């Protein structure tokens, strides 16, 4: 019989505690609305920097292209790339990958190396790629020129 009374007592204590918490948290007060004066929100100040920075696409309806075609781009690279002597002596061959953004006007910005090979070869790849500035037809999305990220792999082989 004592076990039964003890069980009822242990069962009722948590219920009583929960009831006390609920009563203590209850309030009869109505929430009061706080009046905040309306303020005019001004648009952020915008400055023209020469290039309108907007979304950079990775894939568009018409991808950017070297203005005279892919064949002319290969000729340009062949004509302007000079194999660094240090890398040539070390027998370094392989691929460098350069990434950049072709802007709406055909210029290139944000030139960076994605895959490195050798410090001198990397420098040469960036130098020659920067010479291709203003030689691109921009990418087109919905019949409008847009900014597009472009990747250019360059293979360096000793002949």
From TrEMBL:
Residues 68-159 form the TonB C-terminal domain. It comes from the Bacteria. One of its GO terms (cellular component) is outer membrane-bounded periplasmic space. Residues 1-26 form the signal peptide. One of its GO terms (biological process) is protein transport. InterPro entries: TonB (IPR003538), TonB-dependent_transducer (IPR051045), TonB/TolA_C (IPR006260), TonB_C (IPR037682). It holds the Pfam family TonB_C. PROSITE patterns: PROKAR_LIPOPROTEIN (PS51257), TONB_CTD (PS52015). It is found in: Cell inner membrane. It is a single-pass membrane protein. One of its GO terms (molecular function) is energy transducer activity. Keywords: Cell inner membrane, Cell membrane, Membrane, Protein transport, Signal, Transmembrane, Transmembrane helix, Transport. Belongs to the TonB family. NCBIfam families: tonB_Cterm. This is Energy transducer TonB. It comes from Pontibacter diazotrophicus.
């Amino acid at each position: 019989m004592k076990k039964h009374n003890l069980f009822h007592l242990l069962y009722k204590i948590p219920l009583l505690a929960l009831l006390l918490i609920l009563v203590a948290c209850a309030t009869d007060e109505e929430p009061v609305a706080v009046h905040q004066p309306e303020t005019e929100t001004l648009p952020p100040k915008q400055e023209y920097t020469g290039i309108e920075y907007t979304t950079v696409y990775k894939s568009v309806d018409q991808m950017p292209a070297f203005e005279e075609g892919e064949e002319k781009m290969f000729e340009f690279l062949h004509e302007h790339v000079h194999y660094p002597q240090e890398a040539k002596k070390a027998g370094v061959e392989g691929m460098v990958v350069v990434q950049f953004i072709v802007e709406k006007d055909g210029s290139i910005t944000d030139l960076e190396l994605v895959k490195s090979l050798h410090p001198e070869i990397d420098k040469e790849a960036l130098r020659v790629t920067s010479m291709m500035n203003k030689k691109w037809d921009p990418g087109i999305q919905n019949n409008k020129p847009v900014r597009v990220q472009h990747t250019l792999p360059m293979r360096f082989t000793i002949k």
